[in-house]
Amino acid sequence: MATDRECPDCGEPLEAMELQGSSSLGDVVLVAAGDDDGLLGGLRADEVLEPVPHVCPACRRTLFYAEE
After folding, report:
1. C-beta of residue 64 within 8 angstroms of C-beta of residue 53
2. Is the pLDDT of residue 58 over 90?
3. Residue 54 burial (10 A CB sphere; 0-12, 13-18, 19+)
4. Which of these, 8, 32, 43, 50, has the minimum number of CB atoms within 10 Å of its CB?
5. What pLDDT, on a 0 to 100 scale, did the predictor assign at position 67?
């Protein structure tokens, strides 16, 4: 995981965390929808990415990054 991510609010380095909890939806993943203009349009249809939360230890802002 990238270690150079900084909080856009206060500039502190972000810490990667794991999603936990139970949900009837199961695991959350990001899959390309075949739209070349969309946010994930650069992904191949067979690529599945997992949202990884990164938390700022100073201000507690949480950002999600799509990672393999």
Report:
1. yes
2. yes
3. buried
4. 8
5. 79
Best CA proximity match to 13, nearest among 56, 65, 62:
56
Choose among 50, 54, 46, 49: nearest CA to 17: 54
The pLDDT tens digits for 8-57 are 999 999 999 987 765 555 666 766 665 555 655 565 656 777 888 999 99
> Is 29 in contact with 65 (CB distance < 8 Å)?
no
Length of the chain: 68
The two tokens of residue 25 are 């939806």
Gap between the terminal Cα atoms of the chain: 9
pLDDT of residue 4: 82
